[in-house]
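re: the backbone from monday

yeah here it is again, tokenized this time
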């Protein structure tokens, strides 16, 4: 004798198996996309790293690394959203994209000074008039530039003190003392 629980059990199992069979093509498509995305992102980042390495001098490698990292993060995030869409989770992809935008805006606001330092650091590293070994006056400090990073500049004063100044403060106003002295 067939009971209701047997019929319900077979219906549930049948529906479960049907769901798995319908999902397999989407999962295979997602896996194929993920492999192709990995290859494409590796190629793009390699080309970008190579191109930027030719543009920037050896002492400006932090700019190259920062740019490649940011581009890589955006590419992987886009690939992740596309993967969610391929496997049938369009709503989650849309929600995740929107939420990430708001989170990114909040983070950018929270680290705006760090971003200002980094942007100023890129300008200082690219400036042919501001180099290590130059005697400069900036942020009420006069001394020899001993190091320029993406976020800060190190200046050795005549007294031997090492002063670390945020790049946003240096970029606001600085004077190359050797360039201003008469010969």
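seq for it, each position gets an aa:
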């Amino acid at each position: 004798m067939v009971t209701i629980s047997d019929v319900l059990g077979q219906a549930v199992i049948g529906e479960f198996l049907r769901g798995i069979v319908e999902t397999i093509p989407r999962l295979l498509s997602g896996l194929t996309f993920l492999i192709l995305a990995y290859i494409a992102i590796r190629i793009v980042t390699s080309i970008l790293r190579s191109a930027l390495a030719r543009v920037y001098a050896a002492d400006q490698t932090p700019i190259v690394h920062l740019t490649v990292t940011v581009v890589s993060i955006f590419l992987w995030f886009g690939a992740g959203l596309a993967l969610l869409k391929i496997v049938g989770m369009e709503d989650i992809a849309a929600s995740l994209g929107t939420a990430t935008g708001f989170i990114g805006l909040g983070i950018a606001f929270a680290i705006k000074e760090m971003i200002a330092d980094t942007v100023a650091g890129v300008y200082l590293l690219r400036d042919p008039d501001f180099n290590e070994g130059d005697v400069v006056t900036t942020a009420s400090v006069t001394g020899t530039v001993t190091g320029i990073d993406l976020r800060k500049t190190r200046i050795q004063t005549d007294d031997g003190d090492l002063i670390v100044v945020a790049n946003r403060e240096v970029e606001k106003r600085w004077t190359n003392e050797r360039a201003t002295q008469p010969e």
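The first helix runs from residue 4 to 55. Residues 4 and 59 are 76 Å apart (CA to CA).
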